[in-house]
Specification:
The structure is a single chain. This protein has about 425 residues and is of the alpha/beta class. About 40% of the residues lie in helices and about 20% in strands. The protein is built from 14 helices and 16 strands. Strand 14 and strand 15 form a beta hairpin. The chain starts with a helix and ends in a 7-residue tail after the last strand.
Length: about 425
């Protein structure tokens, strides 16, 4: 069997499973999820042995300590994974939710109801726990899942997916509901992206190169985010101490994630006073500052001059570009030009300025006096998430259970015909 035939056969089995999954009750899905959680704990030794192989390969390749930490599993992390599955089981099932219903003058009764999407393909370059998160969110929303993980976590991903499917089947999960493609070469991505006979949606999670490749090849809808070029704007009416706390958290809490701030904009009226507080705080955290003429003049020995490319760069590191702006209009203009429409924040005590910023900034999440790091499914109260979308159609922002469903119209009549 060729690689293409193997992947298409997996797609066929996923499609068959999706039809059975769509008919499961919420109670049945929850029982399956709880069986999966138990299975993760029961098969801890199997998962840890698979993870050991990945860690050995990662060290041999010379991967960074941060990458190795992202790959590493231990009993505590497996227990957290199992707890995450239980938390998804406790969430409200979106399938079958009536979004609206009405009766037409001719007596037709129309109901708009949530339904599963079908088969969701997920291509990801991330931690092994993404395998569990993606699989259980798709299951809870009634979808079959075809997963393709990165090479660094190959053995861990295979073990986790197998445990979830096997433990789930013992609780009534249809065969083929959760499958992980056992290939990590680029050709497998191409075959998935072209498999529109079986996949209803594909979600790439990873670097910009992966996402652009999937978008270029895909014959089915793609939900994605390209970059997290996120801004914090400190207004003239800002509480400056609050502004410092917010930019330090937005930049430094986890600099390598998509909702970390990459650019700081500061109103000229408070620039000198704010920089006097913010620059030492950021430097203390190890942040490299790349500033405009104003910041470079004030701190010539502590700041590098920003280049044109800095305003459109997602650093994913302890690097921050800083620009002094004349006011809210210039801040909005800068964000409109350079933002990736992910997460942007205004710090101000002026409710009118905040209202303008919230209304005019076209991003998936817009914050007033709060860190950009809150753009997260867990922080929004959605449970775990499948990702954060910067698209505008179907799903935007943190994608949880409702975003993994579609809808259909149920039309009930009593013999009506159209004249």
């Amino acid at each position: 069997m060729t690689l293409r035939e193997h992947i298409h056969d997996m797609g066929r089995r996923a499609l068959e499973a999706s039809r059975a999954l769509a008919q499961l009750t919420a109670e049945k899905k929850n029982a399956i999820l709880l069986a999966m959680a138990d299975g993760l704990l029961r098969e801890e030794a199997v998962i840890l042995e698979a993870n050991r192989k990945d860690l050995e390969a990662a060290r041999a390749k010379g991967l960074s300590s941060a990458m190795i930490d992202r790959l590493m599993l231990d009993p505590k992390r497996i227990a957290a994974m199992a707890q995450g599955v239980r938390e998804v089981a406790a969430l409200t099932d979106p399938v079958g939710e009536i979004l609206s219903d009405w009766t037409r003058p001719n007596g037709l009764h129309i109901t708009k109801v949530r339904v599963p999407i079908g088969v969701i393909g997920i291509i990801y370059e991330s931690r092994p726990n993404v395998t569990a998160d993606a699989a259980v969110l798709c299951l809870k929303s009634g979808n079959a899942t075809l997963l393709r993980g990165g090479s660094e976590a190959f053995h861990s991903n295979m073990a986790i997916a197998a445990v979830l499917q096997q433990a789930g089947e013992a609780g009534g999960l249809p065969p083929g509901s959760i499958q992980l493609i056992p290939f990590t070469d680029r050709e497998s991505v191409q075959h998935m992206a072209e498999m529109d006979d079986y996949l209803d949606l594909i979600i790439p999670r990873g670097g910009k190169g992966l996402i652009e490749t999937v978008v270029k090849l895909a014959r089915m809808p793609v939900i994605k985010h390209y970059d997290g070029i996120c801004h914090v704007y400190v207004d003239a009416a800002a509480d400056l101490d609050m502004g410092v706390r917010i930019i330090v958290n937005s930049k430094c809490h986890k600099p390598g994630v998509c909702n970390a701030a990459e650019t700081l904009l500061v109103h000229a009226a408070v620039a000198e006073a704010f920089y006097a507080k913010a620059v030492p705080a950021l430097l203390e955290k190890g942040v490299e500052l790349r500033g405009d003429d104003t910041l470079c003049r004030l701190y010539p020995d502590k700041v590098k001059p920003a280049t044109a490319e800095d305003w459109s760069t997602e650093y994913l590191d302890l690097i921050l570009s800083v620009k002094t702006v004349s006011g809210l209009d210039e801040a909005l203009q800068h964000i409109a030009e350079f933002s990736s429409q992910h997460s942007d924040c205004i710090v101000t005590e002026d409710a009118g300025a905040a209202a303008r910023f919230l209304n005019e900034t076209d991003s998936a999440a817009v914050f007033w006096n709060a860190s950009t790091r809150f753009n997260d499914g867990g922080e929004f109260g959605f449970g775990c998430e499948i990702g954060i979308s910067t698209d505008k159609l179907h799903a935007r922002g943190p994608m949880a259970l409702p975003e993994l469903t579609s809808y259909k119209y149920l039309v009930r009549g009593s013999g009506q015909i159209r004249g």
